């Protein structure tokens, strides 16, 4: 049994310790956000946050994640009460097929937690490892910008509340 | 029997249970059971096969897909609780069709869109609208649903008028209720109690005045986006059924590879493995857990030996080889015996094999139980897929049901149907258990059908005034459709002990065309001779990739138009306008040029930047949306690197249902086309495809997207819907090549415009 | 039938004018068509000097400049090539590379050929000021006049770009460089060595001169000068270790001439790994250089490494060959102990083996120079940041493991790889190496992964 902390809740998972986190999230914990895109750490569709860093869940085995805080897109908000990034993506309608978007949001979240006021160039560079095949890039960039502005305006110190 | 209604989800679509066809009474409904039910619903439900119920002549004029499926209740049902279910044979893959169809239905039925539940393609429940392809969805399904909804509304008004004994024109319709002048009102649901909308559609509908619209043509957020951002079950990849097993296929390493030896003993004993399935060269492993299936697949792969043959000619010879392969020549337009011509300009263009490369590799779930097979698939065509799978498994077609669930963007015929076939084969070997098959990244890259390599030659003669007097266009291409229908279109079927052969394709006829799509320019040219050299058997597997031949034909024609305008010493935009009578074409061209600032453009050469502008126009298929694209690029002369500074597009899609949906599709099409046109080319050696993943088939990343894209839509309410999803693939490519030519003075005619190719063209 | 037309005078004039007009139109169209047909003319450089240099000389200057890697230092991120502006951190502050396009005001447009010779050979600019040796004139001083002149022809025919580099932020005043030069700078050509063949000598000429390999691959003293006695014994560049290219080379597999040529021209060799970090642009440039020149470089370097560990191992039959690439043992499918979250072996088998075993996607690690080098710096950097090919180009992608593995796990994995694949004495203080790499990366203007 492996203990995992996902979105603030502790789960006991009965899985081979070598299992990449992606399959545990999806199959054991029924969390749909992180997606299988390549299984090679090349595309970012599986991106989650671990202790605030963007991490490819498709290549990270669960046993190295003991005691670490894992966040998936489900941990940022719900359809009824979306978090700031999710709301920004909805406001910008930043999705076509949407398959890459949960990974994009987690990657962006890691940036905004570290740097609440990134420049447009910093956003572009940070998001570069994540692939979108439908060509939604412009909207994704605008959504991250929009979320950053919203978070900053909501909190005068520029820190996330 | 009633169908239980779940509370409406925020995305306007049914819950997973409903999508899976489960009802209060059991897992699947036969048509008879459905029809025999009674209750508050519209109960009789006719699934008109594509060839019709023997309609009489009056049905022949029904609009859109109503032509093939004229019975209204095939499209719209009204529940006792007021829920309105709308059925479409089309599918969502991120183009926003679900939302647009809900908008259309809600507008004509005068209800809040949140009351609409949309059911997408399901061979047991929805009309057969063939494939969701060719940008036909709005024209076919949108038109059908809009008209069906309008006709249902009018019928309901008529029923209310009878009930109240008042003239219909005195009634007011609002949010699912009909109110008389004296205050009496009745809800839709009450009106249809015990009655059927089982009537044929009329050729004409009383559509709502576009000026009175509140939903169609307005900014209306996509119904599926919130769920996709918050972890809802949204894709077939997310489907979980009780007792579901996970499978992986051990794909052959190359076309024509045959399984030599397979020592499956070790893999069979691995943790969680349920079964190893083998039929000829088709090998798959089923396990309880997904990672267990992957581990077993790897072990099985190591335990397999394949007999491979070097069947592929060198990649460098692709274009030379194409012209030697057996081909059929189709004269699409012009003189069979044209006589000698003197050409002012002659050019030829090249396009390599390119991939769909969907971000989510294909996936399917299948269950074979009591002689019935259900497949959940993101195939673009569930009805043709059903026929192909039935043939492959030698099952009666009625015992196969294909239900669409979303996949990632597919951009045409990718491996979705093949994953469905795999799942079906494995499910039949494991009756009673749902089986989920997920393709790996390399499988998707190696086995998906590609966009065909293509070659064009263009020749034209200009008169002294710079008008085109003669035009000759030749296009060589493989097929752009090898979709199911037939079992032989499924990759798994080629591997079976009793294999099926890939059927020899036939070209898609004009005016739609395949390799010759958009081969006929919209320009006003007196003598145009256009020939399609159709190559039925290409060395690589090929089928439909977004816009089919239009990408390459528009790239060729629009590059060539610039070469002609240079020869005629005319501005490229003016040159095009002079050759167009179509006013809508002129409108988009003028709008794009104006918004781009075409006439005021300054190439800023003194800064040492090689900045250029390029323009291109096409009407997709000469039938669909009009799109003009103007592009500004910066070329680093030393490295050949192209930076896209900005793109400006003007689009006329006819009647605009969802403006943002159009913008999204146009923007996405431009970026995807730029990725194809800058980077993409499928690589292969003498035996294998070597583009196996993103390291060996790079696509555009954030670092390279344009700095700015502006989209301007010309809305024409009340006119027919024009398919938009593929409208900018060709124009973006040509605008790019034209801008590069303007920037550095060299014309590159071979796709993709890689940095190396650009630098080689520039020279030292 | 002979039917002469009787022509009136006005008709004659009209006809004459029409024929002139017709000829004019024909000429215009012909010229337009000819211009279209030979559009290569429009690709010509825009500088004033364009056309006054022999094209063969310019072409030679192009690949010489590629060997010299001029475009790497003299181009800012996303900047126009050769227009300068790139920050070059040194232990003494930051220098900004200058604009070497032929712009008159902000570039070298006013430089004469002897100005360039003086800069390359003596480290002095057109105004007579000392150049900071971040511009490696301690190597360029060996470049023959004719090669400098070819580079001159090449640079002078580039597009002039108006761009002024930011002011240097360096603690050392230019005047002090004179002292430095008197201590460490030995100007002049390298004499040919009769004890070696023409290819070896050509290779040495390129390596010690234009290629300035020692600028990264030679250790430096406290005043930033290369230690001549330890030429090519290993150094550093931009935080990356530049491994030894002489007999101190720890490369486990032999660097043959063929392997070196492959590595230098494609950026990858299956027996050694990827040209990552600061080496990536070098390989990218060398891919555009005539193979014979790269071959010469390889001949010289291979000779310099002749007595290295890899050579000795190969001679003893103990080098890892391409056919016996290491796999994890007991194998990636064997179970691991879930309790050992920090166990390097478990981490390797569950995280790395999938790509690195058998060299399936990533290099088989018993071939990697990173595991045998004197410090783990490169290995740690690659694990933290991954490897990413140039935009739009094919190339191996290694994902970043920053965040997936914490510092303790990284250190444990590094230690394991050293033991398992490096077959060398353990590195010391890996934990602080990890911390240092993270600090350096954070302060550098690097792309987060």
Q: Strands, helices and their partners?
A:
The complex is a heterotrimer of chains A (161), B (764) and C (449).
Chain A: E1 2-6, E2 9-13, H1 21-28, E3 47-50, E4 53-56, E5 69-71, H2 84-91, H3 101-114, H4 120-127, H5 137-154
Parallel strand pairs in A: 1-5
Antiparallel strand pairs in A: 1-2, 3-4, 3-5
Helix pairs in contact in A: 2-5
Chain B: H1 16-19, H2 31-36, E1 76-78, E2 84-87, H3 97-109, E3 116-119, H4 137-164, E4 172-174, E5 177-179, E6 185-187, H5 188-191, H6 225-229, E7 245-250, E8 258-262, H7 265-268, E9 273-279, E10 282-287, H8 290-302, E11 304-307, H9 318-322, E12 328-333, E13 345-351, E14 363-369, E15 372-377, H10 382-393, E16 400-404, H11 416-429, E17 435-438, H12 441-447, E18 454-462, E19 468-478, E20 527-535, H13 550-567, H14 572-578, H15 583-596, E21 610-619, E22 626-635, E23 642-652, H16 659-679, E24 708-714, H17 729-744, H18 755-762
Parallel strand pairs in B: 2-3, 7-17, 15-16, 19-20, 23-24
Antiparallel strand pairs in B: 1-2, 4-5, 5-6, 7-10, 8-11, 9-10, 12-20, 13-18, 14-15, 14-17, 18-19, 21-22, 22-23
Chain C: H1 9-37, H2 55-67, H3 70-73, E1 87-90, E2 93-96, H4 113-122, H5 137-140, H6 145-156, E3 169-170, H7 174-184, H8 198-208, H9 214-217, E4 235-237, E5 240-242, H10 257-266, E6 268-269, E7 273-274, H11 280-286, H12 291-304, H13 309-315, H14 344-356, H15 369-372, H16 377-385, H17 407-422, H18 430-443
Antiparallel strand pairs in C: 1-2, 2-3, 4-5, 6-7
Helix pairs in contact in C: 2-6, 4-6, 8-12, 10-11, 10-12, 14-17, 16-18, 17-18
Word description of this protein:
Chain A folds into 2 domains: 2-75, Ubiquitin-like (UB roll), CATH 3.10.20.30; 84-154, DNA polymerase, domain 1 (Orthogonal Bundle), CATH 1.10.150. Chain A is built from 5 helices and 5 strands. Chain A has helices spanning 21-28, 84-91, 101-114, 120-127, 137-154, and strands spanning 2-6, 9-13, 47-50, 53-56, 69-71. Chain A has a 5-stranded mixed sheet, with helices on both faces. In chain A, β3 and β4 (53-56) form a beta hairpin. The longest helix of chain A is centred in the C-terminal third of the chain and has 18 residues, at 137-154. The model of chain A has no long low-confidence stretch (mean pLDDT 95). By secondary structure, chain B is an alpha+beta fold. Chain B has 3 domains: 16-229, 2-Layer Sandwich (Aldehyde Oxidoreductase, domain 4); 236-309 and 357-447, Aldehyde Oxidoreductase, domain 4 (2-Layer Sandwich); 454-480 and 515-762, Aldehyde oxidase/xanthine dehydrogenase, molybdopterin binding domain (Aldehyde Oxidoreductase, domain 4, 2-Layer Sandwich). Chain B is built from 18 helices and 24 strands. In chain B, strands 9-10-7-17-14-15-16 form a 7-stranded mixed sheet, with helices on both faces. In chain B, strands 12-20-19-18-13 form a 5-stranded mixed sheet, covered by helices on one side. In chain B, α10 runs parallel beside α11. Chain B is globular, with a radius of gyration of 27 Å. The termini of chain B are far apart. The relative contact order of chain B is 0.10. With 449 residues, chain C is mostly helical. Chain C has helices spanning 9-37, 55-67, 70-73, 113-122, 137-140, 145-156, 174-184, 198-208, 214-217, 257-266, 280-286, 291-304, 309-315, 344-356, 369-372, 377-385, 407-422, 430-443, and strands at 87-90, 93-96, 169-170, 235-237, 240-242, 268-269, 273-274. In chain C, strands 1-2-3 form a 3-stranded antiparallel sheet, with no helix packed on it. Chain C starts with 8 loop residues before the first helix and ends in a 6-residue tail after the last helix. Residues 1-7 and 26-42 of chain C have low confidence and may be disordered. Chains in contact: A-B, A-C, B-C. At the A-B interface, α1, α2, α3, α4 and α5 of A face α6, α8 and α16 of B.
């Amino acid at each position: 049994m492996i203990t995992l902390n996902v979105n603030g809740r502790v789960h006991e998972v009965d899985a081979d310790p070598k299992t990449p986190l992606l399959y545990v999230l999806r199959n054991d914990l029924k969390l749909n956000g992180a997606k299988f895109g390549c299984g090679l750490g090349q595309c970012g569709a599986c991106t989650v946050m671990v202790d605030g860093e963007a991490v490819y869940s498709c290549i990270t085995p669960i046993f190295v994640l003991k005691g670490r805080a894992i966040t998936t897109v489900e941990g940022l908000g719900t359809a009824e009460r979306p978090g700031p990034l999710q709301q920004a993506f909805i406001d910008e309608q930043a999705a076509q097929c949407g398959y890459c978007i949960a990974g994009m949001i987690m990657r962006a979240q890691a940036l905004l937690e570290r740097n609440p006021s990134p420049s447009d160039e910093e956003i572009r560079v940070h998001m570069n490892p994540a692939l979108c095949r439908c060509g939604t890039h412009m909207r994704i960039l605008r959504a991250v910008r929009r979320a950053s502005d919203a978070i900053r305006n909501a909190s005068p110190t520029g820190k996330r509340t | 029997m009633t169908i239980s209604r779940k509370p409406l989800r925020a995305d306007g679509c049914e819950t997973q249970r409903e999508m899976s066809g489960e009802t209060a009474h059991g897992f699947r409904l036969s048509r008879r059971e459905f029809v025999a039910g009674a209750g508050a619903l519209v109960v009789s439900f006719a699934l008109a096969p594509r060839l019709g119920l023997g309609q009489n002549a009056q049905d022949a004029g029904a609009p859109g897909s109503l032509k093939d499926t004229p019975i209204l209740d095939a499209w719209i049902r009204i529940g006792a609780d007021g829920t309105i279910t709308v059925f479409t044979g089309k599918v969502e893959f991120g183009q926003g069709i679900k939302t647009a169809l809900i908008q259309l239905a809600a507008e004509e039925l005068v209800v809040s869109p949140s009351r609409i539940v949309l059911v997408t393609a399901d061979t047991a429940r929805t009309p057969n609208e063939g494939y969701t392809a060719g940008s036909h969805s709005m024209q076919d399904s949108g038109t059908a649903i809009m008209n069906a909804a309008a006709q249902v509304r009018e019928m309901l008004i008529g029923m209310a008028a009878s009930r109240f004994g008042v003239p219909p024109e005195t009634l007011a319709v609002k949010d699912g209720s009909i109110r008389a002048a004296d205050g009496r009102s009745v809800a839709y649901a009450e009106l249809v109690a015990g009655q059927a909308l089982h009537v044929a559609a009329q050729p004409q509908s009383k559509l709502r005045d576009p000026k009175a619209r509140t939903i169609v043509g307005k900014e209306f957020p996509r119904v599926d986006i919130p769920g996709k951002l918050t972890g809802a079950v949204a894709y077939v990849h997310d489907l979980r059924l009780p007792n579901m097993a996970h499978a992986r296929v051990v794909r052959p390493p190359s076309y024509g590879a045959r399984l030599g030896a397979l020592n499956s003993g070790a893999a069979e004993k691995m943790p969680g493995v349920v079964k190893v399935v083998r039929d000829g060269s088709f090998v798959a492993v089923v396990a309880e857990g997904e990672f267990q299936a992957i581990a077993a697949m790897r072990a099985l792969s190591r335990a397999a030996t394949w007999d491979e043959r070097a069947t592929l000619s060198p990649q460098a010879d692709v274009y030379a080889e194409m012209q030697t392969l057996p081909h059929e020549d189709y004269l699409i337009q012009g003189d069979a015996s044209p006589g000698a011509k003197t050409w002012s300009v002659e050019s030829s263009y090249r396009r390599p094999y390119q991939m769909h490369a969907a971000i989510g590799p294909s996936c399917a779930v299948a269950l074979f139980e009591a002689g019935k097979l259900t497949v959940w698939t993101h195939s673009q065509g569930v009805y043709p897929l059903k026929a192909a799978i039935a043939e492959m498994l030698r099952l009666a077609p009625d015992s196969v049901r294909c239900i669409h669930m979303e996949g990632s963007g597919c951009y045409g015929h990718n491996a979705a149907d093949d994953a469905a076939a795999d799942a079906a084969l494995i499910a039949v070997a494991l009756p009673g258990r749902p089986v989920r098959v997920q393709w790996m990244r390399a499988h998707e890259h190696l086995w998906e059908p590609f966009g065909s390599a293509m070659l064009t030659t263009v020749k034209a003669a200009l008169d002294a005034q710079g008008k085109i007097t003669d035009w000759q266009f030749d296009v060589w291409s493989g097929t752009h459709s090898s979709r199911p229908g037939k079992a032989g279109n499924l990759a798994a079927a080629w591997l079976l002990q009793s294999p099926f052969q890939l059927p020899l394709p036939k070209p898609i006829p004009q005016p739609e065309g395949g390799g010759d799509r958009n081969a006929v320019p919209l320009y006003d040219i007196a003598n145009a001779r256009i020939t399609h050299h159709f190559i039925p058997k290409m060395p690589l597997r090929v089928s439909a990739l977004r816009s089919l031949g239009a990408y390459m034909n528009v790239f060729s024609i629009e590059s060539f138009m610039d070469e002609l305008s240079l020869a005629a010493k005319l501005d490229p935009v003016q040159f095009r306008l002079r050759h167009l009578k179509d006013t809508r074409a002129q409108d988009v061209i003028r709008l794009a040029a104006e918004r781009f600032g075409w006439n005021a453009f300054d190439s800023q050469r003194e800064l040492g930047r090689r900045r250029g502008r390029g323009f291109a126009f096409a009407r997709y298929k000469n039938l669909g949306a009009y799109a003009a694209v103007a592009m500004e690029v910066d070329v680093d002369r030393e490295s050949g690197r192209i930076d896209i500074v900005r793109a400006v597009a003007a689009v006329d899609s006819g009647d605009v249902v969802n403006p943002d949906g159009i913008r999204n599709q146009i923007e996405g099409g431009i970026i995807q086309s730029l990725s194809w046109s800058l980077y993409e080319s499928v690589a292969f050696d003498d035996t294998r495809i070597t583009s196996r993943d993103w390291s060996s088939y790079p696509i555009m990343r954030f670092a390279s997207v344009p700095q700015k894209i502006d989209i301007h839509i010309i809305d024409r309410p009340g006119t027919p819907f024009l398919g938009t999803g593929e409208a900018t693939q060709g124009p973006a490519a040509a605008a790019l090549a034209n801008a590069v030519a303007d920037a550095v003075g060299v014309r590159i005619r071979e796709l993709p415009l890689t940095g190396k190719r650009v630098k080689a063209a520039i020279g030292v | 039938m002979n039917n002469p037309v009787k022509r009136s005078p006005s008709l004659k004039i009209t006809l004459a004018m029409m024929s002139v007009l017709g000829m004019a139109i024909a000429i215009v169209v012909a010229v337009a068509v000819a211009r279209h047909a030979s559009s290569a003319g429009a690709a010509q450089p825009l500088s004033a000097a364009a056309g006054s240099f022999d094209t063969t000389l310019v072409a030679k200057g192009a690949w010489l400049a590629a060997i010299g890697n001029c475009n790497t230092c003299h181009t800012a991120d996303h900047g126009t090539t050769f227009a300068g502006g790139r920050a070059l951190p040194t232990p003494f502050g930051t220098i900004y590379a200058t604009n070497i396009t032929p712009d008159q005001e902000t570039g070298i447009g006013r430089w004469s050929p002897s100005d360039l010779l003086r800069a390359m050979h003596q480290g002095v600019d057109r105004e007579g000021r000392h150049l900071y040796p971040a511009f490696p004139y301690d190597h360029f001083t060996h470049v023959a006049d004719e090669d400098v002149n070819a580079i001159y022809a090449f640079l002078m025919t580039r597009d002039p770009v108006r761009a002024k580099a930011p002011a240097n932020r360096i603690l050392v005043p230019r005047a002090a460089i004179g002292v430095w030069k008197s201590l460490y700078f030995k100007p002049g050509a390298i004499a040919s060595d009769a004890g070696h063949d023409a290819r070896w000598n050509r290779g040495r000429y390129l390596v010690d001169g234009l290629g300035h390999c020692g600028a990264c691959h030679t250790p430096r003293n406290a005043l930033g000068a290369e230690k001549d006695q330890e030429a090519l014994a290993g150094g550093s560049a931009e935080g990356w270790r530049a491994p030894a290219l002489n007999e101190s080379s720890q490369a486990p597999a032999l660097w043959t001439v063929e392997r070196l040529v492959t590595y230098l021209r494609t950026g990858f060799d299956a027996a050694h790994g990827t040209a990552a970090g600061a080496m990536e642009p070098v390989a990218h440039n060398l891919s555009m250089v005539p193979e014979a020149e790269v071959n010469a470089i390889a001949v010289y370097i291979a000779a310099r490494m002749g007595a290295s560990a890899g050579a000795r191992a190969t001679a003893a039959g103990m080098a890892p060959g391409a056919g016996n690439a290491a796999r994890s043992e007991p194998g990636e499918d064997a179970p691991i102990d879930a309790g050992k979250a920090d166990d390097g072996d478990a981490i390797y088998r569950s995280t790395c083996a999938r790509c690195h075993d058998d060299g399936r996607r990533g290099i088989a690690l018993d071939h990697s120079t990173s595991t045998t080098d004197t410090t783990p710096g490169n290995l740690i950097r690659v694990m933290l940041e991954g490897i990413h090919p140039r935009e739009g180009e094919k190339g191996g992608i290694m994902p970043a493991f920053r965040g997936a593995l914490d510092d303790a796990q990284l250190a444990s994995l590094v230690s394991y790889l050293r033991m398992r694949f490096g077959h060398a004495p353990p590195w010391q203080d890996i934990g602080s190496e990890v911390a240092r790499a993270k600090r350096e990366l954070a302060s550098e203007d690097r792309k987060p992964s």
